Amino acid sequence: APVQTLDSSKTENGATKPLKPSNDSATHDVAENYEGQYRFAPIEEAQVSRAMIKRYFESMYERAISGDFPAHQIVIVGAGSAGLSCAYQLGSTRPDLKITIIEANVAPGGGAWLGGQLMTPMIIRKPANRFLQEIGVPYEDEGAYVVVKHAALFTSTLLSRVLAMPNVVMMNATAVEDLIIHEDHTGQQRVAGVVTNWTLVALNHDTQSCMDPNTITCPVVVSATGHDGPMGAFSAKRLVSAGLLKELGNMRGLDMNRSEPAIVNNTREVAPGLIMAGMELSEHDGKNRMGPTFGGMIASGIKAAHEALRVLDS
Ligand code: AHZ
């Protein structure tokens, strides 16, 4: 029998046949065609291994260093709503830059897979809804704010837009466990990249002998690691222990009206070479939290992209 590949699910004009509920005739067609004769193209196990290894390690090799213009690199730490919004803004406006996202979790998205209290609708205050229009996420308009029917629709759309950009690389399941801090000729300390390890390794430093990390050098790092938690507020805490920040401001209580503009307006270069965005700033500066409303995260991510470009181009 002829080998059937997924291509045989194409119609005569080349379009993919949609999978519809089983009582639909199109599904019966597919089921009948594949009944007992569905075949995959042949493959060797080593091909699968090599296809992944080659691309992953080539990408690690290429991203280890920033490179000369036009290959400048910006590293974003944390793929929550703030980090991903920053990546979108940078990746779409500056295709000449290498944008590298390091995310500690297996699943990128941070806290943006749900609205609040594990409920699904996501609230975004105006005018940040313009970003939804730009990336193509539908919403219900409620006047001062809009509602996306499921937070996962926002996060999955933003992720797909970001990851489709040829200049973006994301390494998830990878933790930033330190910052590279260089001293310039005037004695000023400057963040010059990140120190990474597989997250599973980073979580096991206490149970094994020394497991040294890896590095990525770049002129600008954007840190968007969220508020304090097992991994969060990473750079803010490291700035304190490295002597670049006297003490953590510590996140303050919930006040939606104060917190969202405060986070956006204070998104900035908090130490030479380090831009901070999103809820990590609440720990750095001692600002209020906003709870389940995400416009501030989007706008902070976009502002972080502008700040990163300002530093890069200065
Ligand atoms: O896994 C973390 C998450 O995906 C990741 N991260 C943290 N530390 C890291 C490290 N290396 C690599 N050392 C790290 N990745 O950073 C991401 C942070 O996402 P988030 O959703 O927690 O933060 P955000 O600032 O993008 O969004 C905050 C959303 C919140 S919290 C809040 C409140 O508590 O009141 N309100 C809002 C809207």
UniProtKB/TrEMBL annotation:
GO CC terms, sorted: cytosol; nucleus
InterPro entries: FAD/NAD-bd_sf, Sti35, Thi4_fam
Residue numbers binding substrate: 82, 103-104, 111, 176, 212, 227, 279, 289-291
BP-aspect Gene Ontology terms: thiamine biosynthetic process; thiazole biosynthetic process
Post-translational changes noted in the entry: During the catalytic reaction, a sulfide is transferred from Cys-210 to a reaction intermediate, generating a dehydroalanine residue.
Cofactor info, note text: Binds 1 Fe cation per subunit.
Positions carrying 2,3-didehydroalanine (Cys): 210
Segments crossing the lipid bilayer: none
Stretches the record annotates as Disordered: 1-27
Cofactor: Fe cation
Locations listed in the record: Cytoplasm; Nucleus
Pfam families, alphabetized: Thi4 (PF01946)
UniProt GO molecular function: cysteine-dependent adenosine diphosphate thiazole synthase activity; iron ion binding
Listed EC numbers: 2.4.2.60
Regions of compositional bias (Polar residues) in chain numbering: 1-14
Substrates-to-products reaction catalysed: [ADP-thiazole synthase]-L-cysteine + glycine + NAD(+) = [ADP-thiazole synthase]-dehydroalanine + ADP-5-ethyl-4-methylthiazole-2-carboxylate + nicotinamide + 3 H2O + 2 H(+)
UniProt keyword annotations, A-Z: Cytoplasm, Iron, Metal-binding, NAD, Nucleus, Thiamine biosynthesis, Transferase
Family per record: Belongs to the THI4 family.
Chain's role: Involved in biosynthesis of the thiamine precursor thiazole. Catalyzes the conversion of NAD and glycine to adenosine diphosphate 5-(2-hydroxyethyl)-4-methylthiazole-2-carboxylic acid (ADT), an adenylated thiazole intermediate. The reaction includes an iron-dependent sulfide transfer from a conserved cysteine residue of the protein to a thiazole intermediate. The enzyme can only undergo a single turnover, which suggests it is a suicide enzyme. May have additional roles in adaptation to various stress conditions and in DNA damage tolerance.
Subunit note: Homooctamer.
UniProt name for this protein: Thiamine thiazole synthase
Organism: Gymnopus androsaceus JB14
